[in-house]
Amino acid sequence: MKRMLLITGSLLGLTAVILGAFGAHGLKESLTPEAVNSFETGVRYQMYHAFLLLLTGTALPLTEKAQKSTFYLILLGVLLFSGSIYLLTTKPLTGIDISAIAWITPIGGALLISAWILITYNFIKYVK
Fold it and tell me: Residue 10 in contact with residue 55, Cβ under 8 Å?
């Protein structure tokens, strides 16, 4: 599980940097400032959770079960939250319209919050 956490955290961080650069240089001329700001929010949250996966795989005193649950909550949360923001904000460029299922954005956010709650709970019960 640690290997999966580290690889996934690294890949999420890598793609966050790539998407951040794309947003900063490739989208500013094509989208409204509000859309670019929203896109950057998706990038920011993806990067925060890339770091959290790296910490979960290396430094946090979590059980294997807690690591696995955290992994899936973060992965699905980032895909739904950040992924939906990317698609919603770039609709004028891509033509992809997911507005009918835009409700997945807050579900992704709830999954990310759940990961933080799980980690907090494990810290509270952790005895060393």
Answer: no
